[in-house]
């Protein structure tokens, strides 16, 4: 099932998802570096990365909802997409709580704030797997005629279905 929101022939949602994923996961890594080094600059950078990751996650969600609404009702993909999306809303919310807890002292976040980031990253791994299941197993967001010899999306040519 093709994505409804495309840019230059590619689905927008998976293009945008890489930014919040990278920012939010790396923010946790930076917190771990700060905890082992004692250098608060790492957590200050993590603070700003979390803020940017939250914004990026919310933007990616808009395009995810557009694609989810196009899935026909009573399909496994509809239910899985709901779990994927709702889970990612929780991930963003938990990171938002962590970010709010850090505002007073970004260079020295509480153990709870860092732990919340860790929980959110673990939940994000599960919701990311669900997103992969949607694409790789259920074909959501994939051109109907996708094949190893399809023309470039930049050519604007439709993909022809392969003969069976």
Helix content: 55-70%
Average pLDDT, all residues: 92
pLDDT below 50 for ≥5 consecutive residues: which ranges?
none
Instruction: Evaluate the radius of gyration.
Output: 19 Å
Counting helices, strands and paired strands, the structural category is: mainly alpha
Helix run count: 4
Question: What report would you give on this structure?
Answer:
- By secondary structure, this protein is mainly alpha-helical.
- The protein has one domain.
- The protein contains four helices and two strands, in the order ββαααα.
- Strands 1-2 form a two-stranded antiparallel ribbon.
- The mean pLDDT is 92.
Short structural description:
With 164 residues, the chain is mainly alpha-helical. The protein contains four helices and two strands. The chain starts with 5 loop residues before the first strand and ends in a 27-residue tail after the last helix.
Keywords:
elongated; 66% helix; 4 helices; two-stranded antiparallel ribbon; mainly alpha; 164 residues
Layout of secondary structure:
Layout: E1 6-7, E2 10-11, H1 12-37, H2 41-69, H3 76-102, H4 111-137
Antiparallel strand pairs: 1-2
Helix pairs in contact: 1-2, 1-4, 2-3, 3-4
